[in-house]
Design a protein that fits this description.
The chain is of the alpha+beta class and 624 residues long. It has helices spanning 3-17, 233-287, 310-316, 326-337, 374-382, 393-402, 404-424, 430-457, 468-494, 500-522, 530-542, 547-551, 576-595; strands spanning 28-40, 46-57, 59-68, 85-90, 94-95, 103-109, 112-122, 125-134, 138-140, 144-152, 160-168, 179-183, 189-194, 197-205, 211-218, 227-228, 341-346, 360-365, 389-392, 605-609, 616-617, 619-623. The strands form three sheets. Strands 1, 2, 4, 8, 9, 10, 11, 12, 13, 14, 15, 16, 20 and 21 form a 14-stranded mixed β-sheet that branches. It has a five-stranded mixed β-sheet with strand order 5-6-7-3-22, with no helix packed on it. It has a three-stranded antiparallel β-sheet with strand order 17-18-19. Strand 6 and strand 7 form a beta hairpin.
């Protein structure tokens, strides 16, 4: 294959990268941000405001949040109680059980509290403000008060691109009396900017990952709604220290694993890219096509340059030397020309006795033991004509559409046999084809290793990708993988090389195609021979020229149509070009039916730990 064709393939591929197929009835949503403001009260309660932004792709009318209200503190004499959530509201919405737009509904049950709201959204971004009060949010431990709550639970099927939280204490506290911790995403940040405030944040929170805040501050004295716990401040600090150590070990192991896997991937991909460069050199030396020779000054031939099998003609002029479904149309026409097939047009009765219907085309295999190539026999067997007998074109089309697996299997194997025929005919180079098969196997091995690598990446915590070094390594490795596979795929396609005879045949058939394109439009000069008319029809179909247009080419002696098996008459007397038009339309339907088959103290700051999970709240949510 020529360098120009490879560059064209690169250009066309680059264009299609930005083109995404239209989604049919697709529906999905994402949560771009979730912001929490938590105001802790001196009576032991907490007023929380959630501001959530959703991106809806498709039509949505409902969203909900489920809260896990089961008790999670360590009780003293059974004093630990389930959490109580009250004062629910959604800004701009009224409370109702009607499920109408701009309404919300609250449901409370043992261990669970839910709020859902109704709206209308279609391919739009919407922000919702949800407010509620946790009556017994604060736990009065032995010597400190504690707010320990999962602002986002681990039952959300959707992640959040950006999470922020601002927790305001009931009153300012001394510098050394505030401590704050975050649990869940390892890329989370926690800080204490002043004596009465704690902030937490995280980016790209994964689905089913909780976002938990834990804040300790001076013990509230008159917190009548607070729960009673049994821990001391030191026990809490020791607990958090243990979480932090485990997280540090896990993070270090993950970081090291990420470096090792990323490094091995990069080395492997550099090796693969080196092999690709080697194969590019081999293509330049052994697989690069020469220039097509000039047939004549006009680059046009008035007659088919040879009697080459239409299937091979069809494949020779395709960039990958593989036949397309139009080879079927050409083959059926050619076999009819050679009287191996008989084609009849049968008129259908009028619809409702008034409306005309398109005639049915019947194809009959006249005899089993006739001179046919193996490729022709394969095609006939594929369309259901492996034994003498008749079949309607409409039945062929229906069978192909109803058995896509059969179609796909055939068109995966048949082109390989056509390619072998082109090699045996001396049109494709045997050595370059062998190199192509070797490189194809090597490329498959590259693909298998890439799949294994992608599988291994799954075991690396997503939070590690917030590290720039690891992210950079994997980005470079990914680019190398895609580059190697992309270039390798082009080389595999381009490695087949035409022989000098193949180049000449290609040039001649292209010149004949050029002539047919112009001639089928102008129809200036009648054809002298019915034999030539039939060849125009057969090879024109193989070359992708409209059979309908070619069938209308004039003959100098119109009576000679009668000597052609491709000139059909219907029982009603309709014949001539109209019959051939119907045949062409039906045979093209075969080609079209095949083509349509598919082939993750004050002023201090820190990070999150991976422990925790002992706070109240949690749960999940979603949209529909």
């Amino acid at each position: 294959m020529s360098l120009r064709k490879i560059l064209l393939a690169v250009f066309l591929t680059s264009l299609t990268i930005g083109i995404r197929p239209a989604r049919v009835e697709a529906k999905d949503y994402s949560i771009t941000s979730a912001d929490f403001q938590v105001r802790l009260k001196s009576n032991g309660s907490a007023d929380i405001t959630e501001t959530r932004t959703y991106q809806f792709d498709g039509s949505y009318s409902n969203a909900y949040i489920d809260f896990d209200t089961k008790a999670k503190c360590l009780p003293l004499s059974g004093a630990c109680r389930d959490y109580i959530i009250t004062n629910d509201s959604v800004d701009g919405y009224r409370k109702s059980s009607s499920s109408l737009p701009n309404t919300y509904y609250v449901q409370d049950s043992t261990g669970k509290h839910s709020i859902s709201w109704h709206f209308q959204a279609l391919n739009v971004s919407r922000t919702f403000v949800i407010r509620y009060t946790i009556n017994n949010a604060i736990i009065n431990e032995q010597d400190v008060s504690e707010f320990y709550w999962q602002l986002i639970g681990d039952k959300w099927d959707k992640g959040v691109a950006s999470v922020t939280a601002r927790i305001i204490l009931p009153s300012p506290a001394p510098d050394k009396e505030i401590a704050a911790f975050g649990h869940g995403p390892l890329n989370g940040k926690v800080s204490i900017p002043n004596n009465q405030e704690v902030t937490l944040s995280a980016s790209n929170l994964s689905p089913n990952t909780f976002f938990e805040a834990r804040v300790i501050f001076p013990k509230l004295v008159y917190a009548t709604l607070a729960q009673t716990g049994s821990l001391t401040k030191q026990q809490i600090l020791d607990q958090e220290s243990s979480y932090a150590k485990k997280t540090a070990v896990k993070s270090a192991a993950g970081f090291l694993g990420g470096i090792v896997i990323g490094g091995l991937l990069t080395i492997y991909n550099l090796f693969a890219l080196g092999r690709i460069i080697r194969w590019l050199f081999l293509w330049w030396k052994f697989g690069r096509d020469g220039r097509l020779p000039a047939v004549n000054l006009a680059d046009s031939l008035h007659e088919p340059p040879s009697d080459l099998d239409p299937i091979l003609v069809n494949a020779l002029l395709n960039p990958d030397f593989k036949p397309n479904p139009k080879a079927i149309t050409a083959t059926i026409l050619d076999l009819a020309r050679r009287k191996i097939l008989k084609i009849e047009t049968i008129k259908k009765p009028l619809l409702l006795g008034i409306l005309p219907r398109a005639p049915e085309i019947i194809i009959t295999l006249t005899a089993e033991k006739v001179e046919m190539t193996s490729l022709e026999k394969d095609l006939l067997e594929f369309v259901g004509l492996n034994l003498p007998g008749s079949i309607a074109v409409s039945m062929i089309v229906s069978e192909l559409r109803n058995h896509p697996t059969k179609v796909r299997t055939f068109w995966e194997d048949f082109p390989k046999r056509v390619e072998i025929k082109l090699i045996k005919a001396g049109l494709l180079d045997r050595n370059s084809h062998k190199l192509q098969q070797v490189f194809k196997k090597e490329l498959i091995i590259f693909g298998v290793f890439l799949f294994i690598s992608l599988f291994a990446i799954r075991f690396i915590p997503t939070s590690l990708f917030s590290n720039r070094i690891i992210t950079t390594i994997f980005i470079i490795s990914g680019i190398l993988s895609l580059l190697a596979l992309f270039i390798g795929g082009l080389i595999v396609q381009a490695m087949d090389k035409q022989t000098p005879a193949g180049l000449m045949a290609h040039a001649q058939w292209r010149a004949f195609k050029n002539y047919l394109k112009k001639y089928s439009v102008t129809k200036k000069y009648p054809l002298d021979s019915i034999i030539l008319w039939e060849k125009y029809l057969v090879y024109g179909a193989a070359l992708g020229i409209s059979v309908k247009a070619l069938a209308q080419l004039p003959l100098r002696d119109k009576g000679s149509y009668a000597n052609s098996t491709l000139y059909l008459y219907t029982n009603s007397g309709n014949g001539g070009v109209s019959g051939i038009d119907s045949l062409a339309s039906n045979l093209n339907t075969i080609s079209n039916s095949i083509s349509s088959v598919g082939a993750v103290g004050v002023g201090s700051s820190g990070g999150f730990s991976g422990g925790g999970g002992g706070g109240g709240g949690g749960g999940g949510g979603g949209a529909s």
